[in-house]
Protein backbone atom coordinates (compact mmCIF):
# COMPACT_ATOMS: atom_id res chain seq x y z
CA UNK A 1 0.00 0.00 0.00
CA UNK A 2 0.88 3.67 0.31
CA UNK A 3 2.79 3.23 3.58
CA UNK A 4 4.97 0.55 2.01
CA UNK A 5 5.80 2.76 -0.98
CA UNK A 6 6.56 5.75 1.24
CA UNK A 7 8.73 3.67 3.60
CA UNK A 8 10.76 2.30 0.67
CA UNK A 9 11.19 5.71 -1.04
CA UNK A 10 11.30 8.14 1.90
CA UNK A 11 11.42 6.19 5.17
CA UNK A 12 11.77 9.23 7.47
CA UNK A 13 8.79 10.78 5.70
CA UNK A 14 6.60 8.15 7.38
CA UNK A 15 7.57 9.76 10.70
CA UNK A 16 9.21 6.52 11.84
CA UNK A 17 12.53 4.71 11.48
CA UNK A 18 12.93 0.95 11.91
CA UNK A 19 16.62 0.55 12.68
CA UNK A 20 19.13 -2.17 13.34
CA UNK A 21 22.79 -1.39 13.90
CA UNK A 22 26.14 -2.97 14.59
CA UNK A 23 28.47 -1.05 16.90
CA UNK A 24 32.23 -1.47 16.54
CA UNK A 25 35.32 0.11 18.09
CA UNK A 26 37.16 1.13 14.92
CA UNK A 27 36.36 2.29 11.41
CA UNK A 28 38.36 -0.64 10.02
CA UNK A 29 36.22 -3.14 11.95
CA UNK A 30 33.07 -1.38 10.75
CA UNK A 31 34.28 -1.45 7.14
CA UNK A 32 35.04 -5.18 7.48
CA UNK A 33 31.43 -5.72 8.64
CA UNK A 34 30.10 -3.67 5.67
CA UNK A 35 32.16 -5.89 3.33
CA UNK A 36 30.83 -9.04 5.06
CA UNK A 37 27.24 -7.81 4.66
CA UNK A 38 27.82 -6.90 0.99
CA UNK A 39 29.01 -10.49 0.59
CA UNK A 40 25.59 -11.72 1.69
CA UNK A 41 26.04 -12.23 5.44
CA UNK A 42 22.87 -11.93 7.56
CA UNK A 43 22.74 -8.58 9.41
CA UNK A 44 21.29 -9.96 12.66
CA UNK A 45 23.79 -12.84 12.76
CA UNK A 46 26.74 -10.48 12.20
CA UNK A 47 25.35 -8.13 14.88
CA UNK A 48 25.05 -11.00 17.38
CA UNK A 49 28.62 -12.10 16.69
CA UNK A 50 30.43 -8.78 16.28
CA UNK A 51 28.55 -5.82 17.82
CA UNK A 52 30.04 -4.34 20.99
CA UNK A 53 26.56 -3.24 22.12
CA UNK A 54 25.66 -5.66 24.97
CA UNK A 55 22.03 -6.11 23.88
CA UNK A 56 23.00 -7.11 20.32
CA UNK A 57 23.69 -10.71 21.36
CA UNK A 58 19.94 -11.18 21.79
CA UNK A 59 18.46 -8.35 19.68
CA UNK A 60 20.54 -8.91 16.56
CA UNK A 61 21.17 -5.17 16.62
CA UNK A 62 17.50 -4.21 16.36
CA UNK A 63 16.63 -1.00 18.23
CA UNK A 64 13.10 -1.46 19.53
CA UNK A 65 11.01 1.12 21.31
CA UNK A 66 10.15 0.84 25.00
CA UNK A 67 6.89 -0.85 23.96
CA UNK A 68 8.78 -3.45 21.90
CA UNK A 69 7.80 -1.89 18.57
CA UNK A 70 10.52 -2.47 15.93
CA UNK A 71 10.01 1.14 14.78
CA UNK A 72 10.42 4.39 16.69
CA UNK A 73 9.30 7.88 15.80
CA UNK A 74 11.74 10.19 14.05
CA UNK A 75 11.21 12.50 17.04
CA UNK A 76 12.47 9.80 19.39
CA UNK A 77 15.66 9.46 17.35
CA UNK A 78 16.08 13.24 17.31
CA UNK A 79 15.70 13.59 21.08
CA UNK A 80 17.11 10.33 22.49
CA UNK A 81 19.86 9.18 20.14
CA UNK A 82 23.30 10.51 19.28
CA UNK A 83 22.93 13.21 16.57
CA UNK A 84 25.54 11.61 14.29
CA UNK A 85 23.82 8.24 14.61
CA UNK A 86 20.43 9.87 13.86
CA UNK A 87 21.85 11.68 10.83
CA UNK A 88 23.17 8.33 9.57
CA UNK A 89 19.79 6.66 10.06
CA UNK A 90 17.99 9.55 8.31
CA UNK A 91 20.36 9.22 5.36
CA UNK A 92 20.14 5.43 5.04
CA UNK A 93 18.39 3.49 2.27
CA UNK A 94 15.92 0.80 3.32
CA UNK A 95 17.50 -2.64 3.22
CA UNK A 96 21.02 -1.37 2.44
CA UNK A 97 23.62 -1.26 5.26
CA UNK A 98 25.29 2.14 5.54
CA UNK A 99 28.99 2.76 5.27
CA UNK A 100 30.63 3.21 8.71
CA UNK A 101 29.14 6.12 10.69
CA UNK A 102 31.01 7.60 13.66
CA UNK A 103 29.23 8.60 16.87
CA UNK A 104 30.39 9.27 20.41
CA UNK A 105 29.97 5.52 21.08
CA UNK A 106 32.12 4.20 18.24
CA UNK A 107 31.47 3.18 14.65
CA UNK A 108 28.07 2.02 13.48
CA UNK A 109 26.79 0.14 10.48
CA UNK A 110 23.10 1.08 10.29
CA UNK A 111 20.33 -0.81 8.53
CA UNK A 112 16.83 0.51 7.94
CA UNK A 113 15.04 -2.81 8.19
CA UNK A 114 13.21 -4.13 5.12
CA UNK A 115 9.49 -3.31 5.01
CA UNK A 116 8.50 -7.00 5.18
CA UNK A 117 10.18 -7.32 8.60
CA UNK A 118 8.52 -4.27 10.14
CA UNK A 119 5.23 -3.72 8.25
CA UNK A 120 2.87 -4.36 11.19
CA UNK A 121 4.95 -2.39 13.71
CA UNK A 122 5.36 0.53 11.29
CA UNK A 123 1.62 0.69 10.59
CA UNK A 124 0.84 0.52 14.32
CA UNK A 125 3.28 3.32 15.19
CA UNK A 126 2.18 5.64 12.39
CA UNK A 127 -1.50 5.03 13.23
CA UNK A 128 -0.90 5.76 16.94
CA UNK A 129 0.01 9.40 16.25
CA UNK A 130 -0.49 10.16 12.56
CA UNK A 131 -0.21 13.93 12.96
CA UNK A 132 3.08 13.79 14.86
CA UNK A 133 4.44 11.13 12.51
CA UNK A 134 3.59 13.20 9.44
CA UNK A 135 5.03 16.40 10.94
CA UNK A 136 8.31 14.94 12.24
CA UNK A 137 8.69 13.01 9.01
CA UNK A 138 8.14 16.14 6.93
CA UNK A 139 10.56 18.19 9.05
CA UNK A 140 13.23 15.49 8.89
CA UNK A 141 13.10 15.37 5.10
CA UNK A 142 12.28 18.99 4.21
CA UNK A 143 14.78 21.44 2.75
CA UNK A 144 14.70 24.05 5.51
CA UNK A 145 16.65 27.31 5.37
CA UNK A 146 17.33 29.38 8.47
CA UNK A 147 18.74 32.90 8.58
CA UNK A 148 22.35 32.36 9.74
CA UNK A 149 21.84 35.01 12.44
CA UNK A 150 19.62 32.49 14.20
CA UNK A 151 21.58 29.31 13.49
CA UNK A 152 21.12 26.40 11.14
CA UNK A 153 18.49 23.68 10.77
CA UNK A 154 19.55 20.25 12.02
CA UNK A 155 17.68 17.29 10.52
CA UNK A 156 19.26 15.06 13.14
CA UNK A 157 18.02 17.17 16.05
CA UNK A 158 14.76 18.33 14.46
CA UNK A 159 15.38 21.94 15.43
CA UNK A 160 17.53 25.02 14.89
CA UNK A 161 21.08 24.82 16.24
CA UNK A 162 22.65 28.09 17.34
CA UNK A 163 25.96 28.93 15.70
CA UNK A 164 26.94 31.30 18.51
Rg, Cα atoms, Å: 16 Å
Shape: globular
* Beta strand count: 7
| Number of helical elements | 8
Low-confidence stretches: none
Average pLDDT, to the nearest integer? 89
Largest sheet: 3 strands, antiparallel
**How far apart, in Å, are the first and last alpha carbons?**
45 Å
Strand content: 15-25%
Taking strands numbered 1, 2, ... along the chain, how are they ordered across the largest sheet? 2-5-4
* Structure class: alpha+beta
Order of helices and strands: HEEHHHEHHEEHHEE
Q: Helical residue percent?
A: 40-55%
Polypeptide structure, described:
The protein is an alpha+beta fold. It is 45% helix and 16% strand. The protein has eight helices and seven strands, in the order H-E-E-H-H-H-E-H-H-E-E-H-H-E-E. It has helices at residues 2-9, 27-38, 43-50, 56-59, 74-80, 83-91, 115-128, 130-141; strands at 16-17, 19-24, 72-73, 101-103, 106-112, 152-154, 159-161. The strands form three sheets. A three-stranded antiparallel β-sheet has the order 2-5-4, sandwiched between helices. The protein has a two-stranded antiparallel ribbon with strand order 1-3. A two-stranded antiparallel ribbon has the order 6-7. Strand 4 and strand 5 (106-112) form a beta hairpin. The longest helix has 14 residues, at 115-128. The radius of gyration is 16 Å and the shape is globular. The relative contact order is 0.20. The model has no long low-confidence stretch (mean pLDDT 89).
Amino acid sequence: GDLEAQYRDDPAGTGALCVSHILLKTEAEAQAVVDELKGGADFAEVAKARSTEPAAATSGGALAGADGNACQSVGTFQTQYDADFTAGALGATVGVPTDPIKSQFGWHVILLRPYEEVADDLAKLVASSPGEAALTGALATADISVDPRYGQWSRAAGNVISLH
